[in-house]
Each structure stands twice: as C-alpha cells, then as structure tokens.
C-alpha cells in the first residue's frame, strides 16, 4: 500500500503538522512559565526520540544515553566559555562529540556478539561512570569546579531570552522527529527491527547488522549531544552531578516505554505524560511523591498496555474504525 494512502500514517503526519503552529504560538505569545516548560518538554522529546531511534528499534537497551546529552552540555559550555563564536558552533561541536563517543563505543562493543542484551546495557552504564570521572578531572571541561555559562552568553542571541532557547529546542525536537519518521518508514528501520527480532536470522539473510548498529548508535548519540548544547545555556551553571544524573537516561527509557517503542511518535506521548505529571506533582512540593507516582504509572501501563499508550491508541482507533465500517 502507498504510504501516503495509509490512514494511520496520514493521521500521525497531520498531528505532527499540527504541532508546528502550537510551537509558534508558545514562542510568540506564551508566558515565561509556558516557554520554560515548553523548552524542557521539547528537550525531553528530543532525548526520548533519539534513544528510541536506536534502542527502541534494535532492542539494544542503552542505559548511557544521558552521557551523550551531558557531554554535549559540557562541550557547549567549554566552547562558550573559551570563545565568542555564534551558538551554532558549540551546538555542532556538542553533536560531533556525542557522535564520536558513540562511534568509539559502537565500533568496540558491536564487534563482539557477547556484548548484546543485558551486557550491552551494563557496558553503557559503565561508560557513564567513566565519562563522569574524566569530565571531573579535565580542566578544560570542568576540573571539579563546574562551569559558569550565563556570564559568557549575556548579550548574545542565545543567552538573551528563554524564547530563543525554546526555538532551538523546537528545531532539535523536529530534527529528531524527522530522523524517527525516516527510520520507521525506510529499509534502515526494517533492518534494525530485524536485529531486534532475531539478529542471527537477520545476518543469515544478508543484513549487515554491524554497520546498521554502529551508524544508528552514532546518529542517536549525536542527536543527544545536540540536545545537550542549549541545556548549558538554560542551566547557566554546569556541574557533573546535575548534568550526568542517572535519572536522565532512566526517565528517557521510561518515556519510550510509556509511549510505546513500536511507533516513532510513542516517545513523544511518553515525554508529554512524564513531564506533565512530574511538573504537576512537583508543584505540590513533593519530589519524592512525584518519583513514586511516575514509577507506578509506568508499572500500570506495562501491565495494562504492553505496547504503550501509542499502541493502545492505535488499537482503539482500529477497533472504532471497524465498528464504523460495519454499520
């Protein structure tokens, strides 16, 4: 079937197109809180989509996705502190560093079939601790004292308003969405999903699994690194404990599972649910309760909706369409 005639695809594309005017309205007319909340939401969307691009499609669950994000944040902070270049330079540098780290790890790990499944997750988790230690001891990046960014961006376009950060975050989330759609509708995504289903069979059918895994992991890491660049400006002061917090990759994975990893737009729904619920509960002054409720929500969704919220919505839509056609 022609993909443009597929009602489900057209519906999702229309929803995506409807997000554009919503972003414009928030950027132009939104209050300070709305813009700040929107920025954080879009960064989480970018992280969730970039994680799902590789891990959700290939089945290789990475627990180190926050490392690419954190390294991107520190790279942007270091460049902004040392130079007066336009923000696009530290932005691209952050993406490049994230991609290079993913390339080094991918070339090493995917060369051996032993590093699959749970062991791959442990390797990426160990990578997080290694990078945190290195950043803490490299004076150019941190050196143990943190990095002040706000004073170096004062008076620049990127540092003059949170609305400008919101615009950058919207563009990055859009880039991640385009990559996610491309992955879900091309041979590339089909190859990654064949690796998830049975890598041995995929290799026997001629799928170059090593190349697909490495390249996809690099793209995923580069996108996360890009998302980390505006975070340096948003925080104003960058420190290892906050930037490399382990709850970042855990929230990203939670968003993908809640929304549904089988559809490219699932992580977007998951990010919306987690960010909104967490913000509402934090507004009540109970961060511990926020963590508990979000965790319980994840358990409930896994028990009641094994394919995530997006899977539930798709099945409900098919069922309603079948009923309507039967009348």
What does this protein structure show overall?
With about 325 residues, this protein is mostly helical. It folds into two domains: about 20-245, no CATH class; about 245-325, no CATH class. Helices cover about 80% and strands about 0% of the residues. The chain contains 15 helices and two strands. The protein has a two-stranded antiparallel sheet with strand order 1-2. Helix 3 (about 65-80) packs antiparallel against helix 4 and helix 8 (about 160-185) packs antiparallel against helix 10. The longest helix has 27 residues, at about 30-60.
SSE succession: HHHHHEHHHHHEHHHHH
Radius of gyration: 20 Å
- Derived from helix and strand composition plus strand pairing, the structural class reads mainly alpha
Strand content: under 5%
List keywords for this structure.
327 residues; mainly alpha; 2 domains; disordered N terminus
What's the short version?
This protein is mostly helical and 327 residues long. The chain is built from 15 helices and 2 strands.
Topology:
Blueprint: H1 7-29, H2 32-58, H3 65-82, H4 88-109, H5 118-137, E1 147-148, H6 150-153, H7 157-160, H8 162-185, H9 187-204, H10 209-235, E2 237-238, H11 240-243, H12 247-259, H13 266-282, H14 287-304, H15 308-326
